Amino acid sequence: MVRTGQERIAGIAARLRAGHWPQSLALIGAAGLATHWFGLAALILALPLAFLALALSDRRQTPPLTDEAARSVPMRQAIADTLGTARQGRARTACLLLQIDEFQTLTDRHGLATADRVIVQSLERLARTLRPADQLFDLGAGRLGVLLAPMPGLTLGPLLALAERLRAALTDPIPLDAATLHISASLGLCLDAQAPARTAPALYDACLAALHDAQHHGPSAIRAYGRGMTAPAPLPRALAEEVTTALQERRLITWFQPQICTDTGQITGFEALARWQHPTAGLIAPAEFLPLLAASGRMEVLGDAMLANALRALQTWDHLGLDIPRVGLNLSPEELRNPTLPEKFAWELDRCDLAAHRLVIEVLETVVATSADDVITRNIAALARMGCPIDLDDYGTGHASIATIRRFAVQRLKIDRSYVTAIDRDPDQQRMVGAILSMADRLGLGTLAEGVETAGEHAMLAQLGCAHVQGFGIARPMPLEATPDWIAAHRAKLGPVPRIARAKG
């Protein structure tokens, strides 16, 4: 039996390499007989899905994320064929698009090999949740497409149930060499009957609009297409020039995300985050434009604007009597290499009549772990002596040693969200974070967990002894003008809060 299975896989692989099968067929959803998504009894998986890795061997040639039209051609053609079949049989079909949240960040941190592994396993898991005739597509850049085979009487209710199962299928931990990886995905969907027109372009674009709406409310959000939804216009190819112009015209704005104490629920600070308000594409996330600014040597200009906005936020909160202790500011390697950086910060703090301890300097662990740059070391030390607290950001993604932490005068570790996701359900995550917290306690360092999205994660982190948290489960980043109302609403909800007993060790 094993030999037969291996021979069948080998035959499939040979046909794929020979180009006898179109790629869309190589990624048919239940290529190995999957579980019926209407809740019928699970069928035995007859054909292993290992050939998916072969189908994905040339993924690095996938067009970039901004080239939406090029990436979606195979799926759009399949939609056209499926709609034709559905019309003939008086049946219905539907399209679903899934985007792995922060896929580019995952790729940057863990490498292309790990990213490919995530895609292969994601496709396998989705395939087990679909029917044999459903089609599954790798659209590149962490985006996956599902096209349902026509069936009579398909309605929104069962489709939403399927969407939830597909999303849930991606949340199981993915084992890596020395740890586990947790991912989430945003999902948009559209029934052919609900699309603006029963054509392939209309159905795909409607599904894409629903996906973008889900991403706006994500991570892990699901949205069905509704009238009035539109997908953002594709980003122009001259984006590098546009972002420079946007920076000059002050269209790169600063939003703020709150941080709270796990013991009391009180607000302990905000983090300043860059956003780009594009005239046609809407709000663009930093992952899209920061690399462009870095490549054009404009990160220091952005840093100056972010510093000014962070200090202005502190002044605004003080004027309103809101008692916000501090604001966190991320510094890029480009900024840290500026020999005059400490003097600039001292001047701006003095100009705004603000104490240095209210401006937290956030430095990526990957920067301090790999930096042999004396200027960077000198600048961080100078800012610390000035009184600015130093946060080591995204802790756990680099290789900062205890000696490095001491050398850079770090006062707090910001635990990366990859260790936080599903920590209330994953004992491995709990042990890893527990070890980080124990080390921090022995070194006299504060701790803050990033990316907290659920009440369960929040409660577990508090129980383990993490002092501060931030994430969508607390609040999303918001413009400065929205912070007073949020602060008032949050504080109004706080009553006498019992201290949560923390684990020893």
Biggest sheet overview: 8 strands, mixed, barrel
Distance between the termini: 51 Å
Number of domains: 2
**Rg over C-alpha atoms, rounded to the nearest angstrom:** 25 Å
The helix tally amounts to 19
CATH topology of the largest domain: TIM Barrel
Q: Per DSSP, what share of the residues sits in E-state strands of 2 or more residues? A: 15-25%
CATH level 4 superfamily of the largest domain: EAL domain
Uncertain runs are 1-66
Give the class from helix and strand content and strand pairing.
alpha/beta
- What percentage of residues falls in helices of 4 or more residues? 40-55%
CATH architecture of the largest domain: Alpha-Beta Barrel
Instruction: Order the strands across the largest sheet as they lie in space.
Output: 8-9-11-12-13-14-15-16
Total E-strand runs: 17
Q: Compute the average pLDDT.
A: 79
Instruction: List the quaternary state of the chains.
Output: single chain
The level-1 CATH class of the largest domain: Alpha Beta
The backbone outline, from C-alpha atoms, is: globular
Task: Describe this structure as you would to a colleague.
There is one protein chain. This protein is an alpha/beta fold. It folds into 2 domains: 2-224, Alpha-Beta Plaits; 255-493, Alpha-Beta Barrel (TIM Barrel). Helices cover 44% and strands 17% of the residues. The protein has 19 helices and 17 strands. It has helices at 2-18, 23-26, 51-55, 68-88, 103-110, 112-127, 156-169, 200-217, 239-248, 286-295, 299-319, 333-336, 341-351, 365-370, 374-386, 402-407, 427-443, 455-464, 483-493; strands at 94-100, 135-140, 143-147, 174-175, 180-181, 185-191, 222-224, 252-261, 267-278, 282-284, 327-330, 359-364, 390-395, 412-415, 446-449, 468-469, 478-479. The strands form 3 sheets. The chain has an 8-stranded mixed β-barrel with strand order 8-9-11-12-13-14-15-16, surrounded by 6 helices. A 5-stranded mixed beta sheet has the order 2-3-1-6-7, sandwiched between helices. A two-stranded antiparallel ribbon has the order 4-5. β9 and β10 (282-284) form a beta hairpin. α5 (103-110) packs across α6 (112-127) and α13 (341-351) packs parallel to α15 (374-386). The relative contact order is 0.08.
